[in-house]
């Protein structure tokens, strides 16, 4: 990967984790007691070591110093590694104060011993497959993603590059906003890196504006699953805000040498408002990485920081987001009761904020409740919550929301099928098929995938009722339509078409229409022989079916002649 793709390698190269004697000034004017004690202990140890080395050197034991230096270098590397792992926890302790776990229902030590579910939260699940049936947002709709992308969005033009720094920053912000709409996350990172350099030039190296850039880069890297880069930038932003908040006792201007001098009182207030957002994003990033201890610390501190703000200072959306992320965390730790409690809090906060139960986030909460019930093995409650989410989407009524209602029907159908309730499964697969088709059209991969599920459910139901003739006849009609759609999408000589032809042959054979079955088997066999070869298992299996069908058809013909 090139340096252009990872601006972390070139930006702020001075930021390196140091051993325990590093400068901890960012923790505030007075360092924490545990850090001061550690510094004193290391200093004392070094003094004692120096005395011993001096004595050894006077005795001619020159190799002793070399061994000592090797050991010290090894310990320094271990210290750097430990500091890198525990850096976020140090900052959280500084922010929290002495009673860090006083009101927490679960401690850090308990988190270490809890089993962890490796499946990511449902909100972050995604698939590159064009046929995957997933929820979409308005930002992900085809209308958004197919819009024209102006090449000028991805960098500054020669004319824009000549603008004064302040105006250049405004131009960058405008381009970044547009790139976010297009989901061009790497381009957002590139322009944010340019914005960081301009912000430092204007406001110096200690400002809330700089922390905002770090937050946005961390968010972009999280979305493309580059978690190491994301957490690095988010920790930079958190460290910067911690420094501003810790130094708020100094009633003076900061960045006095910069062209734009900042009032520390205003910076302090802005830092307190931004801090929960950075902590929340850190928590999201750590959840995706499976680092539950760090995620738990960040999210609980984010909640505490929000509670500490005045009512008019709070961002009304963040309480909902924190509750949602805490739910994901407890679900991963298999604490389903606590997860549901946080989802109820998220539902209440969104209801109070929006003033209506018809909101996409309300539907999202019901979906997440359903997923928690699936994990807990309570399928009926899961179906009930999915149906609540479906109703919200249907009441919203936009194209994207109706698609999400169809995706919800698809999920409900799968649950009914697993519980052998085939009638309900068919009902919801048919509903899902209509909804997906109205959004993507009849020949899209997603539509065909849902339609195939509908067809197989109808066939399975007929087979479960001793090859019910009415059910099999319905299945034939649906599979013929499926074959038509697959031929349109894949071509008449594709393996997908061969599979459908074989299924049609099986249905006709079950209905004792051997002539029709033989016709379908012949077509499927010829396709498989052409695509997979004569030695393929599928080709051999189809050849056996056509041979058997020929024999049965011949016997039936002979019996008919005798009659």
UniProtKB/TrEMBL annotation:
Source domain of life: Eukaryota
Compositional bias of kind Basic and acidic residues: 68-83
Composition bias, Low complexity: 123-132
TPR repeat start-end pairs: 363-396
InterPro entries from the UniProt entry: TPR-like_helical_dom_sf (IPR011990), TPR_rpt (IPR019734)
One Pfam family here: TPR_10
Compositionally biased intervals (Polar residues): 133-144
Coiled-coil spans in chain: 292-319
Keywords, in A-Z order: Coiled coil, Repeat, TPR repeat
Entry-linked PROSITE patterns: TPR (PS50005)
SUPFAM superfamilies for this protein: TPR-like
Region described as Disordered: spans on this chain: 52-83, 111-144
Signal peptide: none
Name of the protein: Predicted protein
Organism: Naegleria gruberi
